[in-house]
Amino acid sequence: MQEEKSVLETAIDRRQFTLASAMALLSGVAITITETACGGSSYSPSSPTTTPTPNPTPTPSAGGDKVGTISSNHNHSAVVTAAKITAGAAYSLDIQGSASHPHTVELTVADLTAIAANQRVSKESSTDSSHSHTVTFN
């Protein structure tokens, strides 16, 4: 009889079991919060979130131009020409592309040397229209 009592004492009711199960399931849920650049964000629980159509990435020329990837891109373009890479001088890369506002990325001689060697280089652009972008080469 003593053994029966300990089983009854440790038993949980249906509500406690359901709550514990729900908490176990919810503990594995990941929540992602993203920030929308260039324009605010809107939330509508009844409609799905739309993802902007990415702009086609320019293809580097056979001459050795390097194309950068731009975070939160909306018609900007980052291409370092082979001539700028071999010039051996730092410069300000204009990434406006066909966007309605400009941004620039400051590239040092060391950055250009790394880009030429196909090493990853990530730089933050200037802040224009209340936002900036990260431009990554290679």
Can I get a quick summary?
The protein is an alpha+beta fold.
Number of helices: 4
Radius of gyration: 26 Å
Largest sheet: 4 strands, antiparallel
Q: What proportion of the residues is helical, as a percent range?
A: 25-40%
Overview of this protein structure:
The protein has helices at residues 2-10, 14-26, 82-87, 109-116; strands at 66-70, 78-80, 91-94, 104-107, 121-124, 134-137. The strands form two sheets. The protein has a four-stranded antiparallel β-sheet. Strands 3-4 form a two-stranded antiparallel sheet. The chain is elongated. The protein is α+β, with helices and mostly antiparallel strands and 138 residues long.
Which keywords apply here?
138 residues; alpha+beta; 4 helices
SSE inventory with pairings:
Elements: H1 2-10, H2 14-26, E1 66-70, E2 78-80, H3 82-87, E3 91-94, E4 104-107, H4 109-116, E5 121-124, E6 134-137
Antiparallel strand pairs: 1-2, 1-6, 3-4, 5-6
